[in-house]
Amino acid sequence: MSEKYDVIVIGGGPGGYVAAIRAAQLGYKTACIEKRINKQGDPALGGTCLNVGCIPSKALLDSSWKYHEAEEAFADHGIGVGKLNLDLDTMLQRKDKVVLQLTGGVAQLFKANKVDWLQGTGQLKANKQVVFKPLEGDEQTLEAENVVLAAGSVPIDIPVAEVDQQIIVDSTGALEFTSVPKKLGVIGAGVIGLELGSVWARLGSQVTVLEAVDTFLPAVDQQIAKEAMKQFTKQGLDIHLGARVTGSKKNKNSVRVTYTDGDGEHEETFDRLIVAVGRRPYTEGLLSQDAGVTLDERNFIYVDNQCRTDVPGVYAIGDLVRGPALAHKAIEEGVMVAEVIAGEHTQVNYDAVPGVIYTHPEVAWVGKTEEEVKESGEPYKTGAVPFAANGRALAAGESAGMVKFVVDEKSDRVLGMHVLGPQASELVQQGVISLEFGASIEDLQLMVFGHPSLSETVHEAALATDYKAIHVAQRRRKK
Ligand code: FAD
Ligand code: AMP
């Protein structure tokens, strides 16, 4: 007889492991099937995010930023460090340690919550049956009242630059360079391309980013995106917009890349090339012919607002489904489906999912951009205030960037908050809270903000929407 579970989750990334823990908390007999083997050769939970995504990239972003500061900023503070030395091995080992600590922590949480971690591959069949193929041993068929598909995503391949993880790498390979490439090419000026490009630029690479689209960060408020472009260019990232890569030819230790832009065809040779052109849902092997779930035209598993697929009792979450490919979106969907299974009415607020780019300065946003609101035709007001007017930012030598609010003129409701600057990933949470609570901009204007703090720029930007900011000269008074 096959083993029966209340909930089987396929995929142990931030969506899947959270769904499994929450389901177990709610009293369900739960299993999570995860097939990942980490770089040490051991089975690992945590998915893309903990193993080869959010966490290792942030570890390297933090290490490389410290190096950059020691090189460029310490002297300003009167700190001399002598000749700087980069021990890349130690830097990479530290990153691996952080990853192991976190992925091991998820395994502990599974034990504590009595979630069965089934190490191997899962495939959904008809009638909520799941074929489980262990890493070792025979295949077995499991049954479940509920199945949560959380298989995540993988990097998109492009035939014009085939990844070999040596010279041409994807985001996973770009976390493992054993020496700093002298000349580094990056295809794609999206979140991942900019973050990984920044890591290696700070460590000394000469970085060129080739981006097919003419607009920089099209999903980001364009006032913020334009300023970000200036800042990143100042840091030495050579970003070519409207530059479509059309081919690549590898030599022993370099790659010649051809690309076209408005001026015609160009060629450039790099020591290493990162392909960061986006990610696609990972459905290979996940669904048997008779599984019954529907895919949409882009191969995402089709789900409703609460992540139900077309098969009753089967849910899909995270990077496998529509919406931004972000760990925190996957996490909240994991919580939601477990609670929906339990008959609760949990609903992720998709209008208040923040986006962050962990460059320096960071870019973070939530809600609508000015461009989106303008297009809707509804009257709106904006307020933008630079960190250059903030004492704490100046004291820290972190005065690049700004906070901007987009506000509904009629209702005074906050529609969007956009930040380029220090700790933008933390500051944006104030916008998330505002949207969740349906705050008016007046609410933020009337709040007391600690001084000196970076958050004061949030306050000033709120005041600026009504020409009431104190620390910037505002051109026009409110009538
Ligand atoms: P995943 O994390 O992809 O996990 C899915 C898991 O399912 C995988 O471990 C896979 O092995 C397993 N699996 C797949 N198929 C099967 C099967 N058939 N049987 C068993 N197991 C299976 N997001 C952020 O929010 N913030 C960031 O800073 C950030 N940085 C990133 C940096 C990089 C370099 C990358 C690549 C991504 C980053 N992301 C970031 C995105 C984030 O990693 C994803 O949005 C998130 O991991 C999605 O979670 P998930 O649970 O849907 O899938
Ligand atoms: P994201 O989806 O945010 O990770 O961004 C990936 C980026 O890669 C997008 O902005 C694409 O326009 C860009 N891109 C895709 N293919 C190419 C290509 N052949 N040459 C240059 N840029 C590309």
From TrEMBL:
It is an enzyme of class 1 (oxidoreductase). Keywords: Cytoplasm, Disulfide bond, FAD, Flavoprotein, NAD, Nucleotide-binding, Oxidoreductase, Redox-active center. Binds 1 FAD per subunit. The active site is at H451. GO terms for cellular component: cytoplasm. Its cofactor is FAD. It is found in: Cytoplasm. One of its GO terms (molecular function) is flavin adenine dinucleotide binding. Disulfide bonds join C49-C54. Residues 5-334 form the FAD/NAD(P)-binding domain. GO terms for biological process: 2-oxoglutarate metabolic process. Its main location: cytoplasm. FAD binds at K58, G122, D319. It holds the Pfam family Pyr_redox_dim. The keyword Cell membrane does not apply. The keyword Calcium does not apply. NAD(+) binds at G188, A189, G190, V191, I192, G193, L194, E195, E211, G278. It catalyses: N(6)-[(R)-dihydrolipoyl]-L-lysyl-[protein] + NAD(+) = N(6)-[(R)-lipoyl]-L-lysyl-[protein] + NADH + H(+). Its EC number is 1.8.1.4. Residues 353-462 form the Pyridine nucleotide-disulphide oxidoreductase dimerisation domain. The active site is a redox-active disulfide bond. Belongs to the class-I pyridine nucleotide-disulfide oxidoreductase family. This is Dihydrolipoyl dehydrogenase. It comes from Alcanivorax dieselolei (strain DSM 16502 / CGMCC 1.3690 / MCCC 1A00001 / B-5).
